[in-house]
Amino acid sequence: PIHFVVPPVRPVPLAYKLLDGEVAHPALVFLHGLFGCKTNFNSIAKALAQQTGRRVLTVDARNHGDSPHSPDMSYEAMSQDLQDLLPQLGLVPCVLIGHSMGGKTAMLLALQRPEMVDRLIAVDISPVETTSVSDFPTYMTAMKAINIPDEVPHSSARKLADEQLRPVIQDISVRQFLLTNLVEVNGRFVWRVNLDALAQHMDKIMAFPPHQESYPGPTMFLLGGNSQFVR
Questions:
Q1: Once rounded to an integer, what is the mean pLDDT over residues 126-140?
Q2: Which residues contact 16 (CB under 8 A, 6 or more apart)?
């Protein structure tokens, strides 16, 4: 008989920000979407920490924000990163709140390790394939084509990048969101998201891993009225 050995996923140490609060209640853990980062949730994290008295954790997914780059961008890997981090911080079980890609990671973690998730909130996403409504491949091609001279001031670099993205990405709010990923490293402007890994795994990111398990805990699906991502 042929045996397939699935190589173990190696977790990466995720960048995070933890707001302190009562240990008596499960912490709130926020997971951002594709091209996002933990600072997307700064305002809401602060407000919820103050209003609920709970600990609130915001996390950068691998290949995003300040977290390390890795060639593996599967949901299994992203779930494993959290399985590694949450117990280290003493945040198990927690209330998991995931938006878009982060929502899929949250759903997979809840299916794989239900004992780690007190409640689950998936924002604008469901556990199915979302390829047909995605412009992400277009965004990535445009981002890769950006050309900015070295040693220009950050404001000029951002303006140049915006001008180069505009013909392909007309929506200014989308451009501004993507431009939060433009950072200066040793006088050169680069994208802090790992575009190569994202492009290579785009099919996986748009899909959802097959699974037999079910999550028995309280679950909420939160979506915009015109959302194309939840059916």
A1: 80
A2: 38, 57, 58, 59, 60, 85, 89
Q: Tell me the sheet residues that pair with 121.
A: 97, 220
What is the domain-level CATH number for residue 92? 3.40.50.1820
Collapsing DSSP to helix, strand or coil, 75 comes out as helix
CB environment 51-79: b (16+ within 10 A), e (fewer): eeebbbbbbbbbbbbebeebebbbbebbb
Burial of 84: CB neighbours in 10 Å, binned 0-12, 13-18, 19+ = middle
Q: Is residue 185 part of a domain?
A: yes
Does the pLDDT value for residue 153 go beyond 80? yes
Q: Which domain holds residue 170?
A: 134-198
The predicted pLDDT at position 231 comes to 61
pLDDT of res. 53: 97
Instruction: Note the pLDDT of residue 1.
Output: 56
Co-location of 213 and 167 in the same domain: no
